[in-house]
Each structure stands twice: as structure tokens, then as C-alpha cells.
Amino acid sequence: MEFLPPEIDEYARLHTEPEPELLQQLNRETHAKVLYPRMLSGHLQGRFLSMVSKMIRPRYVLEIGTYTGYSALCLAEGLQPDGKLITIDINEELESMCRRYFSQSPYHQQIELRIGDAKVIIPQLNYSFDLVFIDADKENYLYYYELLLPKLPSGAFILADNVLWSGKVLDEQHKDKETQNLREFNTHILNDTRVEKLLLPVRDGVMLMRVK
Ligand SMILES: C[S@@+](CC[C@H](N)C(=O)[O-])C[C@H]1O[C@@H](n2cnc3c(N)ncnc32)[C@H](O)[C@@H]1O
């Protein structure tokens, strides 16, 4: 869900860097062939992720939740020449599509796709990540955050997507597990003095955090 009125959202999109050709193709193919295409970051949020990555110039990026690879390709745009992006997804059915698009990208040698449960894979990773994008498994955001935070260097950034959850986090009537966990995550981040935080109402809400 977008929180901006559609015409403002469209104006913002029109005054943003165009969506690169490869990402346009991936966006179209995902909408035509894959279930739940709304999960894909899309033009505006994709350019936001690209810009953030170019500002940070990370050496190591971790993404939790690849889906069809759209946000991974956006985040890879800011990598240092010797940098690497590791992206994890549990859904093996999307692997060949991701790899097909990654192989057409100038960053293909810097992107490592790991198929499996992020809860199992993250403890096996031994990198000092400068940028982490949490975009999978809403019930476990807090788990991923607490798993990663002690390993992140001061000055690292974490982005967490969908933290407004179509506005459901504001309304206590919504008691489903995902909404409750996202609400708990947002409160936890607010009270956590180890990070600076900024909740941006971009698309479905992006929490931007900087490790102190
Ligand atoms: C919202 S989509 C990611 C969208 C993608 N980041 C983008 O912006 O284009 C969430 C993805 O998380 C994956 N996922 C769910 N639970 C997971 C888990 N435990 N470990 C790894 N991936 C998981 C799903 O298979 C799905 O592809």
C-alpha cells in the first residue's frame, strides 16, 4: 500500500530517476508470471534503495528476502568494486528467474544468491555488513535484527521494509501475528539506544536505522 495520494505518488515517480531497462523487464515479468507481485519493491522504492546504497558505498550488503531479485539489483548499484551482496530467499521456485536477471546485470559477479531459511543461513555468514535490508518473514523481523545487530560495525545501516503494514500497525484492532510482530518491532527500535532511527512513509513504510 502507498500512503501518499496516487497523484502525489505518481508525481514523485515522474520526478525520480527512470527505472533502468533490466528492472522494467523484471518488474513486468514478475507481474505477468509470479504470485504476489506487490512484494516487489518497484520503481520509486527501488530508486530509493539504489540511492541509499550509492550514498553508503557498502563493501558488504545483506538482503533477507530476494523474491525475484528486484531490490537486490537496486542495492548492488552502490557496491564498491570489490564488494559483494548476499541475498537470501527460502523459495527455490524463484531461483532460476533471479539468476537469469542477475546474469544480465553488470553486478552479476558481485551478487550471491543463497536459497534457504534466513534463520539458518545468517549465523553461517562471516562478513562485516555495511548495509542490511530486511524484507522477508515479517513475524521474525526482531529475530533477524537481534541476530545481526551485535555483528554490525558502528556506522552500518539497516533498512526494514513494510513497517507500516498497510497502516495496520496503528490500529490495535488488528491482532494477527504479522501486525503484532511488526508493531513490537517498531516499538523495540524506537526504544533501542544502540541505533538511530528514521521511519520513512515510503511505499509501505521503510525503517532506516544507523548503528551507533
Ligand atoms: C517481500 S518479498 C521480498 C521482495 C524483494 N526484496 C523486492 O523488494 O523485490 C519476501 C520474500 O521473503 C522470502 N522469505 C520468507 N520467509 C523467508 C525465510 N525464512 N528465509 C528467507 N526468505 C524468506 C519469500 O520467499 C519472499 O520471496
Mean pLDDT: 96
Q: Could you give a short account of the major beta sheet?
A: 7 strands, mixed
* Radius of gyration over C-alpha positions, nearest whole angstrom: 16 Å
Number of separate structural domains: 1
Strand order of the largest sheet: 3-2-1-4-5-7-6
Structural class: alpha/beta
Order of helices and strands: HHHEHEHEHEHEHEE
Number of strands: 7
Shape: globular
Please state the second-level CATH architecture.
3-Layer(aba) Sandwich
Distance separating the two termini: 31 Å
Helix share, percent: 25-40%
**What does the oligomeric state look like here?**
single chain
Proportion of residues in extended strands: 15-25%
Question: What is the name of the CATH superfamily?
Answer: Vaccinia Virus protein VP39
Care to describe what's here?
The chain has 212 residues and is of the alpha/beta class. The chain has a single domain (6-211), classed as Vaccinia Virus protein VP39 (Rossmann fold). The protein is built from 8 helices and 7 strands; from the N terminus they run αααβαβαβαβαβαββ. The chain has helices at residues 6-14, 21-33, 42-56, 70-76, 95-103, 118-121, 141-148, 177-191, and strands at 60-64, 84-89, 111-115, 131-134, 157-161, 195-200, 206-211. A 7-stranded mixed beta sheet has the order 3-2-1-4-5-7-6, sandwiched between helices. It is globular, with a radius of gyration of 16 Å. The mean pLDDT is 96. Bound molecules: S-adenosylmethionine. S-adenosylmethionine (SAM) binds next to helix 4, strand 2 and helix 6.
